[in-house]
Write a structure and sequence with these properties.
The structure is a homodimer. By secondary structure, chain A is mainly alpha-helical. Chain A folds into two domains: 49 residues, Arc Repressor Mutant, subunit A (Orthogonal Bundle); 118 residues. Helix content of chain A is 76%, strand content 0%. The longest helix of chain A has 25 residues. Chain A is elongated, with a radius of gyration of 19 Å. Chains A and B meet through helix 7, helix 9 and helix 10 of A and helix 7, helix 9 and helix 10 of B. The structure holds a DNA duplex.
Chain lengths: 179, 179
Amino acid sequence: MPRQRTGDTRARIQQAALELFAVQGMQQTSLQDIADRLGVTKPALYYHFASREDLLNSLVEPMIADFEAYAEGLRVAAPVSPRELLGSYFDLAYRHRAMIQLAIRDLSVLHELKLADRFIEWRGTLAELLIGPSPSLRDVVRCMVALGGLSDCAVMIEHTPVAELREAAVDAAYDSLGR
Amino acid sequence: MPRQRTGDTRARIQQAALELFAVQGMQQTSLQDIADRLGVTKPALYYHFASREDLLNSLVEPMIADFEAYAEGLRVAAPVSPRELLGSYFDLAYRHRAMIQLAIRDLSVLHELKLADRFIEWRGTLAELLIGPSPSLRDVVRCMVALGGLSDCAVMIEHTPVAELREAAVDAAYDSLGR
DNA sequence: GTCTATATGCGGATAGAC
DNA sequence: GTCTATCCGCATATAGAC
């Protein structure tokens, strides 16, 4: 590989980290591993990131922003049909499937980064749109099956074209709502 | 608290470990933490367990045995109806909900303990009974939504009486199968 | 921007006294 | 059965030269 033209080292660190995370998980990946993979030393990383947590945060940031925008958009937008909602939620999960796989594999890290609370909040927003406020137990259950199953399919199943997967997943999720 | 009558230290170690795991996760809990909680020192733990991994294994063992017996039982038993299957799977997940919560929170540990493969195998056994061999994409998706949603409900939702929760979850899962 | 060298701490694990 | 003392390795992080 040719040497990088200019100072995009920060981005290269992030990419190396993601590649290693995908193989061995976030928590099992040390700064040493990352530095080795780039052929630099640990202190070099500290020039670009204040701390390990700073690096992690920079990787998770884009997903957070997207999820937060999605939830906020739903809050202010005109009501949509359940199928539309399920479909757009699938798309959201699918966009960030790589990061979600990491998060699932290492929930503790997301706990460190204080994301768990936000996840719950996002889910709550969706749930209320699907089944309204003060839902019954049956509603809560159906909502958990629908949204959980939907994101599971988006993240865990490899299939192209995606449109096929999306349609099948939305159908199953919709059925689990029991109308 | 009164001092323990006799040498049930091994069990007390296991209990202390589980309590700490529930609060801070398996991977984040060191032997030092466990020893401190019992008011003993680290080497004392090594009298009762050969290693940290040995301790972890001893905690997970009962669940493994139960899951394996369940899968084996299905393999040899006469075919059951989808609703019966979903119901018994709910019961299984509910029995071990505490341990499953830990496992979800720390998938990497189960990876260490080489349980991931078995989990996949268990799921496969169930899936085949639900949708037969060589399933279509739509079948795979529906199966993932049904079984994933079912165990999510068994593990994540606090509700008594359990029978109510079970019925609602099985209904939702059954609907997601689309007949 | 990246290096060498180093501080500091915590993790699991063992030796050997009591 | 439990202790004190200790080894070893690896983690994050910093100081300061180039």
